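Lab notebook: predicted structure, single chain.

Context: the supervisor wants predicted structures on file for every construct in the current expression panel, including those that have not yet been purified. This is the next one on the list. No modifications to the sequence; it matches the entry in the shared construct table.
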Amino acid sequence: MTSTERMSAIQQTFSLEGRVALVTGAGTGIGEHFAHVLAAAGAKVACVARRVERVEAVAQEIRAAGGEAFGCRMDVADRDSIRLGFKQIEAHYGPVDILVNNAGLANPTVFQEMSDEQWTSLLDVNLSGPFFAAQEMAKRLIATGKPGSIINIASILGHLAYPAFLNYGTTKGALIHMTRYMALDLLPHSIRVNAIAPGYFPSEMTNPFYESEAGKKEIANLPAKRLGRLEELDGPLLLLASEASSFMNGSVLTVDYGHSVRLS
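Prediction complete. Output recorded below exactly as produced.
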């Protein structure tokens, strides 16, 4: 194989041409960024979230850049909303074969003061949501005999304990373990399930804290002395979404510049 042929083969391995990707929580932050990255790699992207005006705007931006995308409303805590969303996506593009379970909530509160709503709302969105969406996708792919890739967006707080993040960390830890169980059950159907566990990255949800004095002190103590840049998640995302990771199943990729290693 010549160098040119090898380069072409590598590019083809990471290509998402002909694939249909669904990104939950695609209206802002990491989810919005992921939608753009998947579209740039050739996928037709369904941008979904509860705020339909936001995902429609993201889809318009992708189309303006030459990609294929559309936005629709989906509440990941509601099975009926998920089923309707999948039906709409299939009507546009056909079966979803890449699912990025990115939608999530954080509501920091110390354990002894945590309300029932603060506990159950995070369970609904951060854990039940990925379960519902992945199950809907898997059932549809199995019915058609198509392979697929599910990528669960976890967090290093699924590995580590941090004050006042019991509800968030518990759901992310469970999501990491659920990734492994899903991978085993879906293995016979060629549907791979992996996860990404980011460290500290900017997002609509976390920016108010990072901009505070306490947040700035936290950033100063990180190994990199800065937050991660969203583009530093592109490689892990494209690896897991594409055939470049065809022999990866049940894996968790930690992207935190050694933060969790230093604390473990």
